[in-house]
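Homework help board

Subject: predicted structure for assignment chain

Our instructor gave us this sequence and asked us to write out the predicted structure in token form, then describe one feature. I got the tokens but I'm not sure how to describe them. Can anyone check?
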Amino acid sequence: MESQAERIAELLSDGNWHCTNEMYEMWMADPRTRLCELKKKGYVLEGIKCTLHNNHRGGSKMWKMIDEPPKDYSLPSDFNRIKQIKNAPAETLGNKKETEQMLLLQN
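My token output:
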């Protein structure tokens, strides 16, 4: 069975713009979550305000795939540590931005 994120990746793989309405029509409750999952997996996506049609009141976006992740893509080894730093209380880490930058420079 194909996941919702895989279905969106397949939709966007043609390199054309696709409105989130198309994703909702594929019976997805929240395609934004699936788009975030794809980005975390290494897909390069671009989203802009939809101009394909004029029936949006809430500023829906349209999306296209710029690039797929390389076959050997994996999250940086310190990804989870960086996530912890971003979510940690400031008083426990001192300067969170400096700590995060140090971790990124080590990779």
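Reply (TA_rk): Your tokens look well-formed. For the description, you could write something like this. The two ends are 36 Å apart (CA to CA). That's the kind of observation they're looking for.
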